[in-house]
Amino acid sequence: MARLITHGSVGHYQRPLVGIAHLRSRPCGYCETPFRLSELENQLSLKMVLQLDRHLQRRGRALEWLRRVDRSVVAVAQLLKTLPVCHSCYSLYT
Questions:
Q1: For residues 94 and 71, what is the distance between their CA atoms, to the nearest angstrom?
Q2: What is the pLDDT of residues 4-37, one digit of tens each?
Q3: Half-sphere exposure of 79 toward its Cβ, with a 13 Å CA cutoff?
Q4: Count of domains for the chain
Q5: Which residues are within 8 A (CB) of 1 and not within 5 positions of it... i.e. 6 or more apart?
Q6: By residue range, what is the domain housing residue 49?
Q7: How far apart are CA 94 and CA 85, in angstroms?
Q8: Which of 1-9's residues contact partners 24+ apart within 8 Å by CB, and which partners?
Q9: What is the pLDDT of residues 56-73, one digit of tens each?
Q10: How far from each other are the two terminal CA atoms of the chain, in whole angstroms?
Q11: How much is the pLDDT for 16?
């Protein structure tokens, strides 16, 4: 099942990884779509991820992964943890 990744008015389909490629993949730290490790070359901190979540929610975006975690239970030290993200999600933040 292909998953439509949309950012703004631009959208593209991400082909699901199968077989050996799936073993060498990792989910994007933001949209949680599996990518090859070589495609996750950008990083966002957890604080940046939560800021992006809040920004998209304020703009009225109803994305399934925005209902991920209660921000009040995140430890301050965890906010600095970096997550590998795909190019599209990194572009959303920048």
A1: 22
A2: 454 444 455 555 555 555 567 899 998 889 999 9
A3: 11
A4: 1
A5: 16
A6: 3-93
A7: 12
A8: 3/33, 5/31, 5/33, 5/88, 7/88, 7/89, 7/91, 7/92
A9: 888 887 666 666 666 666
A10: 29
A11: 54
